[in-house]
Write a structure and sequence with these properties.
heterodimer, A: 261 residues, alpha/beta, six-stranded mixed sheet, four-stranded antiparallel sheet, 31% helix, 27% strand, globular, B: 328 residues, mainly alpha, 14 helices, 77% helix
């Protein structure tokens, strides 16, 4: 097996003496699509922040291509890791093209202008995400799904090998939820995505990391992680795991009548 | 219209305005007189003296002050994602005014010591605004604005108090610091303000991609390799420097930094390069004509520049607030 693209070694985050992410270890290989699941406050987004560097590690290490992320400058890190998180539309009237072009930033020096290859790259990314006809549109006119696709396009322009998606399907209707995940899978990148919807995780992820109270409870294939016993314990609701009659992937059904309020 | 065309048009207008402005004043000069004086012709020595010793330095100062305040406003607005930020509303001008007022009383009159004291005063004002808005409130546009206005009033009041009690005929100085004027400017002023404005413009252009990345969110900018705190610190330091140099020479000229970036954004867009270049030219053009108006509106008397910019700016400010409320 080739060496892991990303490896977490006892990576942990403490804030004000409170453990947000307990020391955890797992590896991500090139081309993997990994889902991070868990209830609210499990530490999913914090884990992504540790990887993209917006939150410094309290202990442990994270290796990207066998090199510690702590030893990379923020610019070097941005060349290798792109993030798509929940961002509200900007205060000022930016166009779709201008936001996508921001992905060039880590690759450019103070005096570098945009080359014709850069322009082509931005247009290609917008085309891949179906936004080429909206290049001149203002970001504030985009729907939630289009906005997510735009941030994916920016991540493509960034040319990073690892893509971190923080709740990419939040506030999207069913069609856009599937569209975003299908597009993310089709980009040929290694992806780590925080997901709330377990059925989407079961359908699209190669591997799943289950977090609970900052601890990594399970890491493996959907079949290994998404067991009724484990999910009932973590989400505190009885549930049933079955096979979807259409696509044959796992399907999770929670029984809300068992909820203790 | 394409951005380069708009910018070229503004540059042309600025050059024509500059030429016309040199003809305006108590001694009447024709465009030909001015043109010959500029070319170094000695046919009319009086015209040459008026142009080179009086009007040209004042014109260049008007251009530099307008450009400097507009660039500072654009940088502050984009870096803080606050469309109402400007050196005046951020408290920078009042801080610089306080520093300069204290220096004008305590120290022997010297251009550099005045500018340095104004710079320290501007930094003090920024520190106060930061202190009030520390933490989450920094992100709230209205909160920073209120803090800036409060700090502005407080420091202006202290300046006026100091000047009022320290000098027997303080009224002129108080009016100068509060309302601004280009009447005291000379080639020395040009020499002081030009490098500061050039440095701010060059650094902001070099950091254009980082500034653009800040327009979305701090976290988003961080994932692109930007350090928002360091970037803001550098830019705030430079805007404080520019404001200080301007205030030390021309007093407090309000609202230019608020109005010009808004107008320029409307025509050339919000990203750093067209915005900064547009602000440079349009800011210069705007203040040249405001100064012409200040010099020629009343017979044998000059209106303080800040009165005109304040009238225009306050109306503009109300319009923006109303638009923001409708948008919300």
């Amino acid at each position: 097996m080739p060496p892991a693209l990303l490896r977490l070694n006892q990576a942990a985050l403490m804030i004000d003496g409170q453990s947000i992410v307990a020391p955890l270890s797992f590896s991500v290989h090139k081309g993997d699509f990994i889902g991070i699941i868990g209830p609210n406050g499990a530490g999913k987004s914090s884990l992504l922040k540790l990887i993209n560097g917006t939150q410094p590690l309290s202990s442990g290490d994270i290796l990207l291509q066998q090199r510690s992320l702590c030893k990379l400058s923020s610019r070097q890190r941005a060349c290798k890791i792109a993030s798509v998180s929940q961002v509200s539309p900007p205060v000022f009237a930016l166009t779709v093209y201008q936001v996508a072009a921001m992905g060039l930033l880590p690759h450019k020096g103070w005096f570098d202008g945009n080359t014709s290859e850069d322009e082509q790259q931005i247009k290609l990314a917008l085309r891949q995400l179906g936004l080429q006809h909206k290049a001149r549109a203002l970001v504030e006119t985009l729907s939630g799904g289009e906005l997510q696709r735009l941030y994916l396009a920016r991540a493509l322009v960034q040319q990073a090998e690892l893509l971190l998606l923080d709740e990419p399907t939040n506030h999207l209707d069913v069609l856009y939820q599937h569209q975003i995940l299908q597009l993310s899978r089709g980009l040929g990148k290694t992806v780590l995505a925080c997901l709330h919807d377990l059925n989407l995780a079961a359908r699209y992820c190669d591997k799943i990391a289950l977090l609970h109270q900052g601890q990594l409870l399970a890491f493996g294939s959907p079949e290994q992680v998404l067991t009724a016993e484990q999910l009932s314990r973590v989400f505190q609701l009885p549930c049933e795991v079955s096979l979807h009659p259409g696509h044959g992937k796992l399907q999770i059904t929670f029984f809300a009548s068992g909820a203790s309020l | 219209m394409k951005q380069p065309f708009i910018l070229a048009l503004l540059v042309l207008l600025l050059m024509l305005s500059g030429l016309l402005s040199l003809t305006i004043g108590s001694a009447s000069l024709t465009v030909t007189d001015v043109w010959q004086a500029l070319l170094g012709s000695q046919q009319n020595p009086l015209a040459s003296t008026i142009v080179w010793q009086v009007r040209l330095p004042r014109l260049l100062c008007a251009m530099l002050v307008g450009a400097g305040l507009a660039i500072a406003g654009a940088v502050l607005q984009n870096a803080s994602r606050n469309p109402l930020a400007d050196p005046y509303l951020f408290g920078l001008m009042a801080g610089a005014g306080l520093g300069a007022s204290i220096a004008s009383i305590l120290l022997p009159p010297h251009m550099l010591s005045l500018a340095l004291a104004a710079f320290l005063g501007a930094l003090f004002a920024v520190a106060l605004v930061f202190l009030v808005c520390m933490g989450r409130q920094w992100r709230k546009i209205e909160m920073t604005l209120l803090a800036g206005v409060a700090v502005s009033f407080m420091l202006s009041a202290i300046s006026s108090f100091i000047l009022y009690f320290a000098e027997p005929f303080a009224a002129n100085k108080v009016i100068f610091w509060l309302m601004g004027s280009l009447s005291r400017t000379d080639w020395g002023s040009v020499g002081l303000i030009a490098p500061a404005v050039s440095v701010l413009l060059l650094v902001a252009l070099m950091l254009r991609r980082q500034l653009d990345a800040l327009l979305l969110s701090d976290e988003s900018a961080q994932t692109l390799g930007v350090n928002p705190t360091r970037l803001r610190f550098i830019l705030l330091l430079l805007t404080a420097l520019v404001t200080a140099c301007i205030v030390a020479q021309c007093g407090g000229i309000a609202f230019v930094g608020l109005m010009i970036p808004h107008l320029v954004r409307y025509f050339v867009g919000v990203t750093a390069v067209p915005l900064l270049l547009g602000c440079t030219v349009f800011g210069a053009l705007f203040l040249v004509w405001i100064d012409n108006l200040a010099r020629s509106a009343l017979l044998n008397q000059e209106i303080p520049l800040g009165i005109i910019t304040s009238v225009l700016g306050s109306v503009f400010f109300l319009v923006i607030m109303r638009q923001r409320r409708s948008a919300a």
